[in-house]
Amino acid sequence: MSIPKEPRQLMINIMYLVLTAMLALNVSAKIINAFFVIDKGIKTSNARLAEANESTVKDMDRRAGENRERYGKVVSTAQQVQSKSKEFIAYVETLRDAMVKETGGYYGEEDHNHAGQPKGYKNKDITTRYLVKEGNGAKLEQKVNATREELIGLIRSMKGIKGLVIKEEELQGLENSIALQITEGKDWKKEKGVKTWSEYTFNQLPLAAAFPLLTKFQNDMKSSEAAILNYLSGLIGKSEVKVDQFIPISSPIKSYIIAGEQFESTISVGATSKSFNDNVSIRVNGAALRVENGSAKYTAGSSEPGVRTYKVDIAVKNPTTGEVFSNSETFEYEVGRRSVTVSADKMNVFYMGVDNPVTVAAAGVSSNDLKVSVTGNVTRTGGGGNKFTVKGTSPGKATVTVSGGGLKATSFEFRVKQIPDPVAEINGSTGGEIGNGVLKAQGGVIPTLKGFDFDARCDILGYNVIYVPRRQDPMQAVNPGGAFGGQARGLINQAKPGDQFIFDNIRAKCPGDAAGRKINNIAFKVQ
């Protein structure tokens, strides 16, 4: 027998020699337990390989994700390899089960020396009859060879997947890594009187020695499955270029520019890479641009205001497949002139006595470059830059002048007015009917600025109170301030149903007023 190069087969051959020596020396049956130790070790290795292979297929399915058109065949092939492996391992298990059944099954746990081992572990007749004479060993040989060819066929089918670059030397190396094969194909023919591989392998072999040999074939299958799955897993996400769509992208520094400025934009290709420099063509309005790292810069003048458009044409050659993709898109930008606006944030007027917030906006001019001056019947009271407040000093006009940042001095005129007249009220009313108790509960006349957006408060300087009792002569009192004073309170406390009260000559003073102003009168009939 020639010395095999594969470590696993070398181990099996040494095992045969040990067995032969044991049989010749009539060694105790306990030593044959070593075969079951070997068998158990290989089974443990098979279980771990099975878990790893299962995890690999699940991971491949997950990583394929939405790109099923490209990687679906890879995942499908992996699943077929996994199915072939399960089928082969199940077939070998049927051979083992058949021989154990014919020799009385397994020892139970009560037998401490042979628990879990086949009762016919020394039986040579079963292996000779079942595997050699009845031809099941020959069928196993055929199954090994056929399964190996099926695995190679699945590997070779990968070359037909569009978009995947699979080299012949890779496939050849993968075929060589398939451990499932009949390695003793030449050795048995040199043995005198041996006619078949199954006779050479199983004739007069104790059942105990056949166990690790059969498990070894299952291990070869699992190892072959792992090698193929690992290769297929590496194909998913493999770094080669495969593009199915390109989109032109324009990234202007500014899409709105001022006349005299230069328009600049970066034209890019979606899903680009550095390797595209020699495979990408970018044209704007028909003119070719210089491409660097898949992008190109486009510049244009801006002499006149208005909307400008430019057409981008791209052509991309896939360096892997040789396919050429093209697309076009039209973009636009706007050219404007410098302009400026000034607005009073709350009303188009400046009021006296309150802070009027102002915002200055100049298109095309940075707020840091703006120069703002205020003249007329106002004073500047706070803020800076393009946001500040002014306060009117007297009725009339005010002017805000804006310049800076290349903008010609531009002036805006505003009116300066007093705060509108407040409305005098008692109990929120300017007159009509009022309850006797309600009137007596009031504290005075209150001025209200209705519809005025500023935070301002007016004060009542004074008024006259005229009390007209029913069928009696009127009585009058002068009240200083807004709250009811002594005389006014005395008249109000006499109120009875049918009486009338008139509050006239009401004078109020608001922020910015130099003197008081006369406002509305109030008249009530007591109920």
Report on this structure.
- The protein has helices at residues 7-25, 33-64, 68-102, 125-133, 136-156, 168-176, 197-202, 207-235, 436-441, 486-492, and strands spanning 248-252, 256-258, 263-269, 280-284, 287-288, 295-300, 306-317, 324-336, 339-344, 350-351, 356-363, 371-376, 378-384, 387-392, 396-404, 407-417, 423-425, 431-434, 446-448, 459-468, 475-480, 500-509, 517-518, 522-526.
- It is an alpha+beta fold and 527 residues long.
- The chain folds into four domains: 7-235; 248-336, Immunoglobulin-like (Sandwich); 339-417, Sandwich (Immunoglobulin-like), CATH 2.60.40.1080; 423-526, no CATH class.
- The strands form six sheets. Strands 18, 20, 21, 22, 23 and 24 form a six-stranded mixed β-sheet that branches. It has a five-stranded mixed β-sheet with strand order 2-8-7-4-5, with no helix packed on it.
- α2 (33-64) runs parallel beside α8 (207-235).
- It is elongated.
- The model is unreliable at 239-244 (pLDDT under 50).
What are its keywords?
single chain; 527 residues; alpha+beta; Immunoglobulin-like; 4 domains; 10 helices; 24 strands; 33% helix; elongated
| Strand proportion | 25-35%
Question: Helix segment count?
Answer: 10
Structure classification: alpha+beta
Main beta sheet: strand number and arrangement? 6 strands, mixed
Instruction: Look at the structure and give the mean pLDDT.
Output: 82
Number of domain units:
4
User: What is the gyration radius calculated from CA atoms?
Assistant: 51 Å
Low-pLDDT parts are 239-244
What is the terminal-to-terminal distance? 133 Å
Global outline? elongated
User: Helicity, in percent?
Assistant: 25-40%
Count of individual beta strands: 24
